[in-house]
Design goal:
Elements lengths: L3 H5 L8 E2 L6 E2 L5 E11 L2 E13 L1 H7 L1
Antiparallel strand pairs: 1-2, 3-4
InterPro entries: UCP037465_Znf
Pfam families: DUF2180 (PF09947)
Protein name: DUF2180 domain-containing protein
Length: about 70
């Protein structure tokens, strides 16, 4: 699979990740990595896991979330 953002610019580079929101293939230059807190229902409350999970998004989805 190739990076979607690179291909849109007429370049070709190998995708190393997939956007967790839209599913586009991403190279290292276009992948945005951010922590994501993982929650789990535990009885009548909520439990938070540590460490945070890793979340990868493309530039478009990253900007839409900010």
């Amino acid at each position: 699979m190739n990076c979607y953002d690179c291909r849109a610019r007429g370049e070709t580079s190998v995708a190393v990740a997939v956007c967790s929101r839209c599913g586009a293939g991403l190279c290292m230059d276009h992948a945005h990595v951010a922590p994501q807190t993982v929650h789990e229902t535990a009885g009548v409350g909520r439990s938070t896991h540590s460490p945070d999970a890793r979340r990868l998004t493309c530039g478009v989805c990253h900007e839409a979330e900010v």
